[in-house]
Every structure is written in C-alpha cells, then in structure tokens.
Amino acid sequence: QSSTNQKKALIVYYSLRNGNTRIVAEHIQKSVGGDIFRIETVNDYPSVYNEVTAQAKRELESGYRPPLKNKVKDFSQYDVIYIGSPNWWNTIAPAVMTFLESYNFEGKTIVPFITHEGSRLGASVTDIKKMAPKATVLKGLPVRGGSVNEAMPDVQRWLKDLGLIK
Ligand SMILES: Cc1cc2nc3c(=O)[nH]c(=O)nc-3n(C[C@H](O)[C@H](O)[C@H](O)COP(=O)(O)O)c2cc1C
Description:
Helices cover 31% and strands 22% of the residues. The protein is globular. The model has no long low-confidence stretch (mean pLDDT 95). The chain has one domain (8-161): Flavodoxin domain (Rossmann fold). Strands 1, 2, 3, 4, 5, 6 and 7 form a 7-stranded mixed β-sheet that branches. Helix 1 packs across helix 5. It contains 5 helices and 7 strands, in the order E-H-E-H-E-E-H-E-H-E-E-H. It is an alpha/beta fold. Residues 15-16, 18-21, 52-53, 56, 86-90, 115-119, 145 line the site of flavin mononucleotide (FMN). This is Flavodoxin. It comes from Dysgonomonas macrotermitis.
C-alpha cells in the first residue's frame, strides 16, 4: 500500500474443498493487495457431497454457527473487508455467518463475492447485511464455480465499478 493513512484490505473466504471461492479470493488479492484469511471450521464436513448438503441444510434451518479454528490478527487494522462464500442453499455458508458475528464491523466496508452453480448471489448479500448491520455492504460479485479460473476480467471490472481499483 502506497499511502500512509490507507489501511490494508483483508480478503476473507470460506471454501469447502474444491477451492472455487479460494480462487476468486486470490484474483482479488492479486488485484488489490492486502492480506488473505481462510475461514476454517473446527469440525470438518463429511466427505460425501450429499451428506454435506444435508448437514448444511440442517445447520441453516436451526441457525447453527460452526465454531472456527482461527482468528484474524488485529482486525481493527482493516477497513475494507472482502468476504467470499460459496452459495449454500441460496445463502452464505454457516462458517461465514460465524465469522460475521465474531467481529465488530462498525465503520467497516464489506465487499461480498459468492461462487455458485446457478443461484448466483441468492439471498447472500441480504443475509450478510443482516449479520453485520453496522457495515457498509457494497455490490456483490457472483461467479459460477466452473468459471473461477477465467474470472479475473469479471473480478477486475467489478472492482473498477466499485472504485476499488483504477
Ligand atoms: C452444502 C452446499 C449447498 C449448495 N447450495 C447451492 C445452491 O443453493 N445454489 C447454487 O447455485 N449452488 C449451490 N452449491 C454449489 C456451490 O455453491 C458451488 O459449487 C461453489 O462454487 C463451491 O465453492 P467452494 O469450492 O469454494 O466450496 C452448494 C454446495 C454445497 C456444498
């Protein structure tokens, strides 16, 4: 970062296994710099896909918040926080909900990005706003899971539209 009073960006993401959301997070970090943080749950999800979707459905319906393994060091040093999640049942993954409820987002700007297999953003951005009501939440970017490797131009257009890169 060049200017002395400009705070660093933080790029936070959750990605189950395939790393679709991780790849978009990396496109963002290549574009804006800053630090990257992977959300990890204490307990792993099952290895069978159908079991993951069933468990996720139960967790979302009950409002369960999976405990997280790791914490961001000195969260207050960041003012722009990119938050990435896969679309799970039309919203963000429960681990990202835990994350949003674990930090003070007052005065922060959240920039959401979502990978999906057809539902695009769904209710994810609306739900992020509910879980971090004191943050300013900018326009979210949906990226199809199968297209993440080619998504850099879309990522950069979105960042330019938001005035986050030149
Ligand atoms: C539990 C679960 C629920 C999902 N629900 C949806 C959904 O409602 N709509 C959709 O388009 N994709 C859904 N998907 C597909 C993921 O959003 C997509 O594969 C995503 O890119 C995975 O990202 P990741 O590899 O970073 O975990 C779901 C995947 C899982 C595992």
